[in-house]
Amino acid sequence: MARALIFDRRRCLACRSCELACAVIHSRSRRLDEAIGEEPRPRRRVSIVRSGAGLEALRCEQCDEPLCVFACKSGALHRMPDEGRVVLDEERCLGCLMCLMVCPYGIRPDPVRDQVTRCDVCQGLETPACVTACPTHALQAQEEPSHRVHTDFDGHVVVVGSSAAGIAACEAAREHAPRCAITVVTADEGPEYSRPLLAYALAGRLDTALLRWRPERYLEDEIGATVVRGVRAVGLDGTRRALILSNGQEVAFDRLVIAAGARSARVSIPGATLSGVFGLRDLDDLEGLNRLTEPGRRAVVLGGGNVGLQVCEALVHRESHVTLVVRSPYLLSQMVDEAVGRRVGDLFERHGVAVRTERDVVEMVGTQQVEAVRLDNGEVLPADLVVVGKGIEPDIAWLKGSGVGLRRGVVVDSCSRTDIPGVFAAGDCAEAVDPVSGRSQVSGIWPVAYEMGRAAGSTAVGVERSTQGALRMNASRFFGESIISIGEVVPERLAGASGHVLVDRDGSYRKLVYRDRRLVGALLCGDVSGAGVYYRLYRESVDLGAVPPEELERVQLELALGVVRAGVRAG
Known about the structure:
By secondary structure, the protein is of the alpha/beta class. α13 (about 530-540) crosses α14. Mean pLDDT is about 90; it is low at about 565-570.
């Protein structure tokens, strides 16, 4: 059972005794007289705020389906399998703000520590400090039972892939079907690791040992799975219900979850296979880049998306001379609008990156090792290494002829089913429907991959679970500047949408996109407060009625919490 905080606004005096007690109990000394002088200052986890409906206490809800855990790419946030409670390992937190983006309740930014803080319901104390301090008993602690559903499914679930979608599928299958057998087939020979953290390791922000986002032997010891490592799936016989492996073996299955992921997109130009040309998708790429990246080296990065910019920042930290080549007119063109894209370009140029927009590489020059790149305008840029960050290619070639429906990725429904009964697909190898545009697309976003994997694993063992589709979201931090993008932030790309810039000044940009009385996009730069509430309004497609954009920041909390809190325990 997980302990949760219950709030009765009718009893609350807004005296903020709970906030003070929370800050003190999370100080180093746990004494008020000493905590006052501590640096960095202790931060409260519980906050009393005023919404349109009155006072509200923001605290951890201990959700049965915790989106913060699903969004966490470092493993800092996880749910204890035996108790169901959510905990935060602050040593693993990288301050990526993905959890802040999806949670309107109990997560706050902590810029001093370059992390987040989160209500932990005072685990380890018999009674939470805020509850003890509340003079009117407006806050109470309550043990919440888990609402997990168990099935009698005892067949064999085979999962291809061991990243976000694959592990989520294993967790969900084991949670709902304790007696089922699980086999994981993974091309990785070592422990499971988080690919989004590779750029952090390249920058030297974390040791490669911390790339692992689940404990060592997690699949074997906690999930009870058989893991076949260093082997790829190369074929599928749906009639015989057999998975064909690269070592010549076959694995029979009752249910199959394809979570094979994707590879870095390749460039088809002369010289693209020269030594010194990398993606950043696996440990081999990281090892090769670490070997070549030294102070003074000349690096060219292709692609102005999130990965390309993370690589640029990492190489700047490694004291390389970096040139960024981007085909679009501004950076992060799929994530931000032109105003923020140009701000980001200026930010990178201030940190020494030479930015070439509206340009593309047509040739990589060298004999065996790359020595330069040639742009489409004839300019030649010297290069000791090149990093290609131009998107992903789903790993689906091995499925051709299997009967599984394929477009850019595997075609699935909202529960991650393919058109072969008992076969599911999830993550970067699968397509899901964007709920705003209605188009089926490969998302390539960690939280979407995790939720798709969870839907696949649950549905496979008899607990039908659907996802919200290819929701668009991303949280980034470049050179200390935070950006959160939710949904469609360029209204011109969406018929009937209108954009509304609420704040546009140095250090802060806030923009909302409306369509049909619903929030379909939010772009926050610098000041990212309220991101979790905006995400829930977008995710749940809340009808905002007559609330104009300029008023939404005042009433957003009431709208979002009123809609999603009703289903917070059941997910």
